[in-house]
Amino acid sequence: MPDLVRDLKDRIATLEEEVRQYREDMADVDSVLFNILSRQQLALLLAINKRPMASYSYLDHVSEDHGKYNRYEGEMHQTLRTKVAVWKLRQRLKPHGIEIKTWRGVGYYLDDENKAKLTQLMEKKDG
User: Fold this and answer.
1) DSSP assignment of the chain, as one string?
2) How far apart are CA 120 and CA 93, in angstroms?
3) CATH class given for the domain over 28-123
4) Are strands 101-103 and 54-55 parallel, antiparallel or unpaired?
5) What is the pLDDT of residues 15-48, one digit of tens each?
6) Taking the CB of residue 1, how many other CB atoms lie within 10 A of it?
7) Ramachandran bin of 107, using left for φ above 0, alpha for ψ from -120 to 50, beta for the remaining angles
8) Is-contact 100 90, C-beta < 8 A?
9) Strand order in 101-103's β-sheet?
10) Chain centroid to CA 98
11) Is residue 63 a contact partner of residue 81, using CB atoms and an 8 Å limit?
12) Which of 15, 20, 27, 34 lies deepest, with the highest CB count within 10 Å?
């Protein structure tokens, strides 16, 4: 019985940490971002922002749940869908001076300057 209690406490601690990380990654609902970006674009942007380098496969996984056109299966369609989504995301962020960089063959990232601009945009309230 003590092992079960210890295992449950460990699991609770793990879940609390996951919730803390999810809350840290969430944008404020009054943020200007909600008027600029779609749900998929917001998910991709937050995924790129929270990692030093967001690999193609990681972003494929992120866009899998948020994609508008998920009727096609296969790795090729998933990769193309993600690349198109990132291209559209870049177009939406360009007027705000935020540039998503590409590390060819690896993935996407935001440098420190663009992370700072994104933080300012996330803190900016609508209205």
Assistant:
1) -HHHHHHHHHHHHHHHHHHHHHHHHPPPTTBTHHHHS-HHHHHHHHHHHTSSSEEHHHHHHHHHHH-S-----SHHHHHHHHHHHHHHHHHHHGGGT---EEETTTEEE--HHHHHHHHHHHHSBP-
2) 13
3) mainly alpha
4) unpaired
5) 888 877 766 665 555 566 777 888 888 889 989 9
6) 5
7) left
8) yes
9) 54-55, 107-109, 101-103
10) 15
11) yes
12) 27
Q: Break the chain into its structural domains and give their ranges.
A: 28-123
- Tens-digit pLDDT profile for residues 39-80: 888 889 989 998 899 998 888 888 776 555 555 566 666 668
Round to whole Å and give the CA distance between 66 and 71.
Answer: 12
Question: Residue written as tokens 């992120």?
Answer: 62
DSSP-derived pairing of the beta strands 107-109 and 101-103: antiparallel
Using CA atoms, how far apart are residues 14 and 55, in angstroms rounded to an integer? 25
Extract the tokens encoding 71: 């009727």
Q: How far is CA 52 from CA 1, 16, 101, 109, 112, in A?
A: 42, 24, 11, 6, 10
